[in-house]
Design brief:
With 388 residues, the protein is α+β, with helices and mostly antiparallel strands. The chain is built from 13 helices and 8 strands.
Length: 388
């Protein structure tokens, strides 16, 4: 299937590019990955930039109009995400809008929607995902964090890990076990958690880039009001499955690396002594980029037709995150030892972004379900192979 922009889509793509040319200083944001921390000035700029996106209705472009969104189909949303992420636009991918919003619109009550959707639409609330645990990441349904009903509240105890942005989050989408006697895929409930409640401790995990993008979160007798339960008690796994499919279908993981790939191509173009191996390396990454991009549009097209991609989203996720990992390693092969220099080095080519990608790359193959988990989804649900 060949995807081409319709006249309406082409006009929208040009509108996005014009906006980015006017509002985004490319020298500051180009070639960045979303694992890098922001300084104070960058954080202020990001809030201002997100306000402009919200004013145009772009943050919730794909939400139904009944919920204050733009009512755009998934292909139009993908065009938006592609243009924003390829330029490193801060706030283009938002966990609250992309993950919490659909769960609330599909499973939340009217009161819950009125409570949380306005902050998501305006871009003024920060969200995190509280799914993975030390013993339940790849096998998420084995989670042990418990939420025990006590009158009009649930008492939450346990631990989550690998929660992106939890240290800055106002709210979190949480999975907790509410029935310890039920089979592991049952007895799990889906909550909205106020991250400022007493008993919550957030500890940033310092990664190889010496940043605290990921966090571990501890719960010690945290009392969650019962009206923070989304959907039916003990049926949260099925809501979470939709959240995970949504997380795995975004094009941002592919196009986020576009500016770095283009810079590497230009570096090789200027180097008349580049070896055949280097040229092949860059050619392979360019092939991967095009394939990854079209895999994302395939998923978006399916969603726009009312279909629910499952293993197709996993194919896109595996391929896209493997590309993110390879951009850093390929960059080092192209630039040699200079590619290992950090951004603050005056000798670092491409502003040191290759080193950043090399360090951040492996994490992309883990977040949103490891490559191994997603390959198993492809094997069983896509190819009909027996479970091991």
């Amino acid at each position: 299937m060949l995807f081409r922009d319709s006249p309406e889509q082409a006009i929208f793509r040009e509108e996005l590019r014009h906006f980015l040319d006017q509002e985004l200083p490319s020298s500051e944001w180009n070639m960045r990955n979303d694992r890098e921390e922001m300084n104070e000035d960058e954080a202020i700029f990001t809030r201002s930039f997100r306000n402009k996106l919200a004013e145009r209705g772009w943050l919730t472009l794909g939400w139904p109009t009944a919920f204050g969104g733009g009512g755009a189909d998934f292909v139009m949303q993908t065009i938006y995400m592609e243009e924003m992420s390829s330029r490193g636009a801060p706030g283009a991918y938002d966990q609250g809008i992309w993950l919490a919003g659909p769960a609330l619109m599909q499973q939340g009550t009217t009161l819950q929607q009125d409570r949380w959707l306005p902050g998501l639409r305006s871009g003024t609330s920060n969200w995190c995902q509280l799914f993975s645990e030390p013993g339940a990441g790849s096998d998420l349904a084995s989670l042990q964090t418990s939420a025990v009903r006590d009158g009009d509240e649930y008492i939450l105890n346990g631990q989550k890990i690998w929660s992106s942005g939890a240290a800055q989050a106002d709210w979190g989408i949480l999975l907790a076990r509410t029935d310890t006697d039920a089979p592991k895929h049952r007895g799990i409930s889906y909550f909205i958690l106020d991250m400022k409640l007493p008993g919550i401790t957030v500890r940033p995990l310092t990664n190889m880039m010496e940043t605290g993008h990921f966090c571990e979160v501890f719960f010690d007798d945290v009392r969650i009001p019962k009206d923070c339960l989304i959907g039916e008690e003990n049926r949260g796994w099925y809501t979470a499955a939709g959240t995970l499919d949504q997380e795995r279908s975004s094009i941002n993981r592919v196009v986020m690396s576009r500016s770095t790939l283009e810079a590497l191509i230009e570096a090789v173009r200027k180097n008349s002594s580049a070896t055949m191996e280097v040229r092949y390396e860059i050619a392979d990454r360019s092939i991967d980029f095009e394939i990854g991009r079209w895999l994302c549009y395939r998923v978006a097209h399916m969603q726009s037709q009312g279909l629910s991609p499952n293993y197709e989203a996993s194919i896109s996720k595996v391929f896209g995150t493997e590309l993110q990992r390879q951009i850093g390693t390929s960059g080092i092969r192209v630039l040699g030892l200079y590619g290992l220099l950090e951004p603050n080095s005056p000798y670092a080519p491409l502003k040191g972004r290759v080193e950043r990608w090399a360090l951040a790359g492996p994490s992309y193959t883990i977040a949103g379900g490891t490559s191994e988990v997603n390959r198993n989804v492809i094997a069983t649900r896509g190819l009909g192979l027996p479970r091991a």
